[in-house]
Amino acid sequence: MHSKFYVMPKRKYKIAVIQLNLNDVAENNLKKCISWVKDAASKGAEVTLLPELYSSHYFCQSEDVDNFALAEPLYSTSFIAFSELAKELGVVIIVPFFEKRMAGIYHNSAYIIDTDGTEAGLYRKMHIPDDPHFYEKFYFTPGDLGFQAIKTQKGTVGTLICWDQWYPEAARITALKGAEVLFYPTAIGWHPKEKEQYGENQYGAWMNVMKGHAVANGVFVAAANRIGLEQYLEGTDGIQFWGASFIAGPQGEILAQASHDQEEILIAEVDLDLQENVRQNWPFFRDRRIDAFGDITKRAID
């Protein structure tokens, strides 16, 4: 339980998502992200989200033990740098990183760093994919901290990570715990050979499922994706990250949308009076039949 004093939250605050090409070494990616977070703050952002695994290229395209060297212990390089930055700017920063918990246990994690530089929360990715060139099960232990709504000096936020975005249960629980915004740091893209045939439907499904989370839960949703072709393995086509980061309102309306191929900052306002009005008029939480939902905890209903 946090002992620090929280001021009465504002009814409106500005959030930002930053869309970047991160196909570089950790030192350069850190410098780039610091610069972009400063830029977002200068534009009025009070809570800023970076893309998934910000500090390196997307290394999960292969199963290679050498990539574990990219991980960092808790409260080391990334936390120190962004803690100082959050305190300097007086903003909240959500920092997704590759966590080394101990020898043999690694997580795909995110710090939620408060305006005074302290840790408001830590999230560990709960759903871990294993698909061609997204071999995350090789690297990441599933999260064990559960779904959380994190109180910060700017607002109450929830962080989920990439593959989590396909699960309505994750969004629902995070929203029920009080999150006003669901932040999704993301690394998602096309296999270049599949793009022409499947690309439009894949991208559309990604947008639709998260807009659905916004509608079903009456929350704001913000996703920060990468851009660019990351092709570092010989004999492969790599992954073309599709960008298109966005911020949606509580009726699924798009408040800000990025391109597929440019580095960008998106900023939108979280309006808690609007959120309350939407939930009053579309009372999905009121009408949930929680007495009939027990089967959702089963793997299959045989």
From TrEMBL:
Query: Which first-to-last residue range defines the signal peptide?
Result: none
Q: Mind telling me what this protein is named?
A: N-carbamoylputrescine amidase
Q: Which SUPFAM superfamilies match?
A: Carbon-nitrogen hydrolase (SSF56317)
What Pfam family is a match, any one? CN_hydrolase
Q: Which organism is it from?
A: Flavobacterium circumlabens
Residue ranges occupied by any CN hydrolase domain in the UniProt entry: 13-272
Q: CDD domains, from UniProt?
A: CPA
- What is the top-level taxon of the source organism? Bacteria
Q: Which PROSITE patterns match?
A: CN_HYDROLASE
Spell out the InterPro entries in the cross-references.
Aliph_Amidase/BUP, C-N_Hydrolase, C-N_Hydrolase_sf
What's in the keyword line of the UniProt record? Hydrolase
UniProt xrefs under PANTHER family? BETA-UREIDOPROPIONASE (PTHR43674:SF2), NITRILASE C965.09-RELATED (PTHR43674)
